[in-house]
């Protein structure tokens, strides 16, 4: 436990090697605490839809004589089941990105292809929400990493931009080079995020408006996944927003130049 570790630290002061060991212990305790928090959060988040489905199933049994009521309950059960399935998918996705390093099967990635793919994944959602997704011209820039993970990250940003915007607004995606970094920005004209909340949006399970997020099926894990993928690629994700003024999320990734070659094991990548 934490007390024991603090004791070890105090007892070991002056002994460089032992102090290092104590530091490792502290880190191990912290990792364990994070893991325990995560499991507690997951259990809590799963209980809500599972509870709702159980209740609906019981009520449906009581209403067996009334076909209209049965149909209504069945529809609500489907909504809850979709929500549950989305949540489970996001939990699996987060453990997947946390468990593997992007760089194990990394390769040169054309960022324009990632943008195209992520936009395509959201095409039906954008159409259904009556939101125009506009991509600025092609950049011809490359990064080094996992194209599937980068597509997931960008797709999460685009799907959020659509989710938190009103119909007939626009989501703009642009790519540019800044120093040695490739910057991909997703800008919306949506509801925006207040300053206090902005600092917390990358936390796991954080949602500004739980009620609204519930109706949109949000899990609060999308941005935690994006952050993990960005960091894993040696980059970062940042957010700019003002309540009522829309938001801009920017992925910054180290650029891989056209003439650069990278050697991974026995493979040379150009
Ligand atoms: P969720 O599945 O709830 O969208 P995320 O981790 O993707 O989870 O986002 C966390 C919270 O940040 C959201 O619930 C929402 O309140 C806020 N948020 C994320 N993207 C945007 C955006 N583009 N505009 C406004 N709010 C956003």
Automatic annotation (TrEMBL):
<protein>
    <recommendedName>
        <fullName>Sensor-like histidine kinase SenX3</fullName>
        <ecNumber>2.7.13.3</ecNumber>
    </recommendedName>
</protein>
<feature type="domain" description="Histidine kinase">
    <location>
        <begin position="41"/>
        <end position="257"/>
    </location>
</feature>
<keyword id="KW-0597">Phosphoprotein</keyword>
<keyword id="KW-0418">Kinase</keyword>
<keyword id="KW-0902">Two-component regulatory system</keyword>
<keyword id="KW-0808">Transferase</keyword>
<dbReference type="GO" id="GO:0016301">
    <property type="term" value="F:kinase activity"/>
</dbReference>
């Amino acid at each position: 436990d934490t007390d024991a570790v603090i004791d070890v630290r105090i007892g070991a002061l002056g002994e460089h090697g032992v102090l290092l060991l104590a530091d490792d212990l502290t880190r191990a305790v912290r990792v364990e605490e994070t893991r325990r928090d995560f499991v507690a959060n997951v259990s809590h988040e799963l209980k809500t839809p599972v509870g709702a489905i159980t209740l609906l199933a019981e009520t449906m049994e009581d209403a067996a004589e009334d076909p209209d009521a049965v149909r209504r309950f069945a529809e609500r059960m489907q909504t809850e089941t979709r929500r549950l399935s989305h949540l489970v998918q996001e939990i699996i996705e987060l453990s997947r990105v946390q468990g593997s390093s992007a760089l194990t099967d990394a390769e040169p990635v054309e960022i324009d292809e990632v943008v195209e793919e992520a936009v395509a994944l959201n095409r039906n959602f954008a159409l259904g929400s009556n939101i125009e997704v506009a991509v600025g011209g092609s950049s011809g820039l490359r990064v080094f990493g996992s194209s599937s993970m980068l597509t997931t990250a960008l797709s999460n940003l685009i799907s959020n931009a659509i989710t938190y915007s009103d119909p007939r607004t626009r989501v703009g995606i642009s790519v540019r080079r800044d120093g040695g970094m490739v910057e991909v920005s997703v800008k919306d004209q949506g509801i925006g995020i207040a300053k206090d909340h902005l600092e917390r949006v990358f936390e796991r399970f954080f949602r500004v408006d739980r009620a609204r997020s519930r109706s949109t099926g949000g899990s609060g894990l999308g941005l935690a996944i994006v952050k993990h993928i960005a960091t894993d690629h040696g980059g970062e994700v940042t957010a700019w927003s003002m309540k009522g003024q829309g938001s801009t999320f920017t992925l910054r990734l180290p650029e891989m130049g056209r003439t650069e070659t990278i050697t991974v094991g026995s493979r040379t990548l150009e």
